[in-house]
UniProtKB/TrEMBL annotation:
<dbReference type="GO" id="GO:0016149">
    <property type="term" value="F:translation release factor activity, codon specific"/>
</dbReference>
<dbReference type="InterPro" id="IPR050057">
    <property type="entry name" value="Prokaryotic/Mito_RF"/>
</dbReference>
<keyword id="KW-0963">Cytoplasm</keyword>
<dbReference type="Pfam" id="PF03462">
    <property type="entry name" value="PCRF"/>
</dbReference>
<dbReference type="InterPro" id="IPR005139">
    <property type="entry name" value="PCRF"/>
</dbReference>
<dbReference type="GO" id="GO:0005829">
    <property type="term" value="C:cytosol"/>
</dbReference>
<dbReference type="InterPro" id="IPR004373">
    <property type="entry name" value="RF-1"/>
</dbReference>
<comment type="function">
    <text>Peptide chain release factor 1 directs the termination of translation in response to the peptide chain termination codons UAG and UAA.</text>
</comment>
<comment type="similarity">
    <text>Belongs to the prokaryotic/mitochondrial release factor family.</text>
</comment>
<feature type="compositionally biased region" description="Basic and acidic residues">
    <location>
        <begin position="284"/>
        <end position="307"/>
    </location>
</feature>
<dbReference type="Pfam" id="PF00472">
    <property type="entry name" value="RF-1"/>
</dbReference>
<dbReference type="InterPro" id="IPR045853">
    <property type="entry name" value="Pep_chain_release_fac_I_sf"/>
</dbReference>
<dbReference type="InterPro" id="IPR000352">
    <property type="entry name" value="Pep_chain_release_fac_I"/>
</dbReference>
<feature type="modified residue" description="N5-methylglutamine">
    <location>
        <position position="235"/>
    </location>
</feature>
<feature type="domain" description="Prokaryotic-type class I peptide chain release factors">
    <location>
        <begin position="228"/>
        <end position="244"/>
    </location>
</feature>
<feature type="region of interest" description="Disordered">
    <location>
        <begin position="284"/>
        <end position="311"/>
    </location>
</feature>
<keyword id="KW-0648">Protein biosynthesis</keyword>
């Protein structure tokens, strides 16, 4: 087992005490909000550190009793009985601490932008893209996160050719970042008279929502075009030039938004553009950092087939960690915690293995 970084633990405890003191001194509201955010991040880590230190101290006291020849028999028997339990507790706390003290992804606490695009499979792929969006929407609601659709292009038979939404809340990206990739579905379409199973796919991209501080977009690097909104219905279409298309000239990225308000469209399109540029920067740093070694689930390759949803067999298989769950009906309703947690655990195990190699 990798050795715990004692110096880092001491520094976290010191910082936690400093934050507590500053919060109790009654700082300005904006400062208090920042301190409270850092406090809530550090609190579970520091609690675990203190539990660990208490257990280590307890073990030392019991070992001292056993080493002392003057300890009477009853006390010695009690110490011999209690010491193994304390040692087990120390081992469990060490494992928990190693995970808590792993290097943090700076984007983990951010909200996210979810992009789903229908792939091969025509109308069936668009329906599947709709199923995936509802799955993430329901999962988000169980976490108390807010979902807002930024743009959507509906399929002819339902579902979506493409849908982009923000999922706002604390730690959204940390939970959903391993959902990026190609999702494949196998099922019998309602229009299939012969009962033949069709295979279709949709691509999911989860981007950390970027703020101005994360990425700077220079005015001279973008071109903004307005155009007439297009869509079904007709009564509001072609009445105003409300749709906005932003082109980022250095990268060639194009983002569009076509709601009724031109002002809102510009803000939403900039929000997506900023997050895509931030994601490109992150991908570049990640690929440089892990050129010699790729995590099984953390490669970020959007063209990789990551998961299969087989409706006739009621199963979902994640190919990166070889996990198959026979509860597709519940998962498509948003109950994906087990899968999300397994992906995070696998990633953390890879990080711990890397850390062990470095020590």
């Amino acid at each position: 087992m990798a050795k715990l970084p004692v110096e880092k633990m001491r520094e976290l405890e010191r910082r936690f005490g400093e934050i507590e003191a500053r919060m109790s001194a009654g700082p300005a509201a904006d400062v208090y909000v920042k301190l409270a955010s850092e406090y809530s991040e550090l609190e579970p880590v520091v609690k675990k550190i203190r539990d660990y230190e208490k257990a280590v101290s307890e073990a030392a006291d019991l070992e001292a009793l056993l080493a002392d020849k003057s300890t009477d028999k009853d006390m010695r028997d009690l110490a011999e009985m209690e010491l193994p339990d304390v040692e087990v507790r120390i081992g469990e706390l060490e494992k928990d601490m190693q995970v808590l003290l792993l290097p943090k992804d700076a984007a983990d606490e951010k909200s996210a932008i979810l992009e789903i695009r229908a792939g091969t499979g025509g109308s069936e792929a668009a329906l599947f893209a709709g199923d995936l969006f509802r799955m993430y929407e329901r999962f988000a609601s169980t976490k108390g996160w807010k979902v807002e659709v930024l743009s959507a292009s509906e399929g002819e038979a339902g579902g979506y050719k493409e849908i982009i939404a923000t999922i706002s809340g604390r730690g959204v990206f940390s939970k959903l970042k391993f959902e990026s990739g190609v999702h494949r579905v196998q099922r019998v379409p309602e229009t299939e008279a012969s009962g033949r199973i069709h295979t279709s796919a949709a691509t999911v991209a989860v981007l950390p929502e970027a703020e101005d501080i994360d990425i700077e977009i220079r005015p001279e690097d973008i071109r903004i075009d307005t155009m007439r909104a297009s869509g079904a219905g007709g009564q509001h279409v072609n009445t105003t030039d409300s749709a906005v298309r932003i082109t980022h000239l250095p990268t060639g990225l194009i983002v569009t938004s076509s709601e009724k308000s031109q002002h809102q469209n510009r803000a939403k399109a900039m929000q997506v553009l900023r997050s895509r540029l931030y994601d490109i920067e992150r991908q570049k740093v990640d690929s440089e950092r892990s050129a010699d070694r790729k995590s099984q689930v953390g490669s970020g390759d959007r063209s990789e087939r990551i998961r299969t949803y087989n409706f006739p067999q009621g199963r979902v298989t994640d190919h990166r960690i070889n996990l198959t769950l026979y509860k597709l009906d519940r998962m498509i309703e948003g109950e994906i915690d087990e899968l999300v947690d397994a992906l995070i655990a696998d990633y953390q195990a890879g990080q711990l293995a890397q850390l062990g190699e470095q020590l």
